[in-house]
């Protein structure tokens, strides 16, 4: 029993020492004596890089995700413009465009594009809550299959497009794009 405790203790000590070494290797080097501090004169922190987009969240959208449905396509199909555009918010495989809409909170006035990479892509949406119909090369939500899903169908329109190795799903708030306007988005999806 004591041999086991000694072996476990030595193993833990070796692992913690290896962890400290790895931490020290990944830590940035301290500036040499007399060298200027990083960030600028007097050690002031460097100014944050300016975003390349109009931000509504913490980060700009990935251009690869934006390419599946550019905001200009939303402008054209939904009657929006730079004047009503509030900005974009990036999440993993997702880009949300936010717009001003009279009498609606910003959290409900968006067009969301979700384009994950996939090994197996469904050619048509398989949704237990909504029925879908073909709209050009894409699919658009038609109606709710249950009364519980009806409020969601009334507040947003879904679009789906299958690609090679990816799919594109768009969730457009009806406060930004009516159902008819969202159908005009379908040809712009890539």
Strands across the major sheet, in which order? 1-2-3-7-6-5-4
Q: Per the principal axes of the C-alpha atoms, what is the gross shape?
A: globular
Q: Number of helical segments?
A: 5
- SS-derived structural category: alpha+beta
| Count of beta strands | 7
- Measured as a percent range, the helix fraction is 25-40%
Textual characterization of the structure:
The chain is α+β, with helices and mostly antiparallel strands and 190 residues long. The chain has a domain at 63-188. It has five helices and seven strands. A seven-stranded antiparallel beta sheet has the order 1-2-3-7-6-5-4. A hairpin with a 4-residue loop joins β6 and β7. The longest helix is centred in the first third of the chain and has 25 residues, at 2-26. The chain is globular. It starts with a helix and ends in a 5-residue tail after the last helix. The model is unreliable at 1-32 and 37-44 (pLDDT under 50).
Provide keyphrases for this structure.
single chain, 190 residues, alpha+beta, seven-stranded antiparallel β-sheet, disordered N terminus
Summary?
By secondary structure, the protein is an alpha+beta fold.
Reconstruct the topology from this structure.
Elements: H1 2-26, H2 63-66, H3 71-78, E1 85-91, E2 94-99, E3 110-114, E4 130-135, E5 138-144, H4 150-155, E6 156-162, E7 167-173, H5 179-185
Antiparallel strand pairs: 1-2, 2-3, 3-7, 4-5, 5-6, 6-7
Helix pairs in contact: 3-5
């Amino acid at each position: 029993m004591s041999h086991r405790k000694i072996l476990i203790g030595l193993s833990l000590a070796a692992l913690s020492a290896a962890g400290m070494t790895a931490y020290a290797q990944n830590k940035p080097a301290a500036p040499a004596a007399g060298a200027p501090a990083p960030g600028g004169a007097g050690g002031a922190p460097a100014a944050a890089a300016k975003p390349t987009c109009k931000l509504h969240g913490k980060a700009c959208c990935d251009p690869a995700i934006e390419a599946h449905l550019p905001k200009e396509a939303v402008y054209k199909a939904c009657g929006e413009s730079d004047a009503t555009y509030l900005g974009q918010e990036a999440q993993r495989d997702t880009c949300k465009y936010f717009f001003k809409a009279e009498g609606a909170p910003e959290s409900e006035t968006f067009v969301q594009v979700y384009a994950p990479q996939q090994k197996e892509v469904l050619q048509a949406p398989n949704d237990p809550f909504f029925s879908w119909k073909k709209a050009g090369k894409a699919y658009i939500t038609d109606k709710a299959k249950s009364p519980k899903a009806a409020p969601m169908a009334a507040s947003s329109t879904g679009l789906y497009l299958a690609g090679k190795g990816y799919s594109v799903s768009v969730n457009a708030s009806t406060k930004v794009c009516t159902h008819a306007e969202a159908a005009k988005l379908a040809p712009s999806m890539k």
